[in-house]
Write a structure and sequence with these properties.
The structure holds 2 protein chains of 2 kinds. Chain A is flat. Chain A starts with 10 loop residues before the first helix and ends with a helix. Chain A folds into 2 domains: 79 residues; 31 residues. By secondary structure, chain A is an all-alpha fold. Chain B is an all-alpha fold. Chain B has one domain: Cytochrome c oxidase, subunit III, four-helix bundle (Four Helix Bundle (Hemerythrin (Met), subunit A), Up-down Bundle), CATH 1.20.120.80. Chain B has 6 helices and no strands. The termini of chain B are far apart. Classes of the chains: A mainly alpha, B mainly alpha. Chains A and B meet through helix 1, helix 2 and helix 3 of A and helix 1, helix 3 and helix 6 of B. Chain B: Belongs to the cytochrome c oxidase subunit 3 family. Chain B: It is found in: Cell membrane. Chain B: It is a multi-pass membrane protein. Chain B: It comes from Domibacillus enclensis.
Chain lengths: 110, 209
């Protein structure tokens, strides 16, 4: 729709453009949700099927990380503009989280 | 833009949660808080991983004896779906549709309560069937602290959303409460983020030993 330009200045056009954009985003959210459900089912199925521990642990962890990225970037809108500060906060948190878990696990196990 | 100004769907701004200075500050502050929550939960996960299956004797139940996948799967689906319904609520918030936003928030609350009911049943089951208690072993302490702290977040998130719904029921949407609804939904998503790691690290990895 060429006439639905966001910066045309016409409030009616801007409004319709925004409604359309929101609806498109909503479709993306439903696709995200479907994929998250899919990853969850796969993770539970992998454990239920009784594969080797050395396959299951990295596999379900990878699925969890992918699912969390979906949640943060789509459900929590971190993919939108103006989310530089949230990214800084979350990635700083993740680095400290990773070091904490690594430290605890290695101290106890070795 | 004044916080109490009346809007129509046409004049409602594109990012109502950040249209005022207060909204912008709340947005920044809340994400900072979520970064801190990530570290807090990491310390609980680290403790759990370090103390998993640390029981004083063989009569105590270990992770693989306790957990049942169907219940955990149901809880995961409830929380994941409630995350989607709160996305729907924010979609209607951005379209300035207060009534539909309230309806989806209500569904979110119902799903959250169902999740909480499952968790209470689960803890009760472990306590009475397996004698798996907070004070019975290091494993018990670490498990209940991690999963219980997440459950506490669910309780707080539900109270927050219910309070917002009741408090603003007759007021409708404006730039004063739009940031509040938005942040409550961010908090709810974060609870689901933590649960993804709980069902993976505690339950799924617990089942394989």
């Amino acid at each position: 729709m060429a006439n639905l330009h966001p910066n045309s200045g016409d409030p009616k056009v801007t409004y319709e453009y925004r409604r359309k954009k929101h609806a498109e985003e909503m479709r993306m959210q439903v696709i995200t949700f479907t994929m998250m459900i899919f990853f969850t089912v796969i993770a539970f199925a992998a454990v239920g099927a009784g594969f080797s521990k050395w396959f299951i642990v990295p596999f379900v962890l990878l699925l969890a990380v992918v699912q969390v990225i979906f949640q943060l970037y789509y459900f929590m809108h971190m993919s939108h503009k103006g989310h530089e500060a949230p990214q800084l906060f979350m990635y700083s948190g993740v680095i400290v989280a990773f070091v904490t878990i690594l430290a605890f696990v290695t101290i106890i196990w070795w | 833009m004044a916080a109490e100004q009346k809007f129509t769907p046409q004049t409602w701004p594109e990012s109502p949660e950040q249209a005022t200075l207060e909204g912008k500050n709340k947005f920044l502050g809340f994400w900072f808080f979520l970064g801190g929550e990530t570290v807090l939960f990491a310390s609980l996960f680290a403790t759990y991983l370090a103390l998993k299956d640390s029981v004083p004797s063989d009569t105590h139940a270990k992770a693989a004896d306790l957990f049942e996948l169907p219940l955990v799967f149901l809880m995961t689906m409830l929380l994941l779906t409630s995350s989607l319904t709160s996305v729907f609520a924010m979609y209607h918030m951005k379209n300035y549709n207060f009534k539909k936003m309230q309806q989806w928030l209500f569904i979110t609350v119902v799903l959250g309560l169902a999740f909480l009911g499952c968790e209470i049943y689960e803890f009760n089951h472990y306590y009475h069937e397996y004698e798996h208690k907070f004070t019975s072993s290091a494993f018990g302490s670490a498990f209940y602290t991690l999963v219980g702290f997440h459950g506490g977040h669910v309780v707080f998130g539900l109270s927050w959303i219910i309070a917002l719904m009741i408090r603003n029921a007759k007021r409708g949407l404006n730039l004063y409460n739009a940031p509040k609804f938005y942040l409550a939904s961010l908090y709810w998503h974060f609870i689901d983020v933590v649960w993804v790691f709980i069902f993976t690290v505690v339950y799924l990895m617990g089942m394989v030993g």
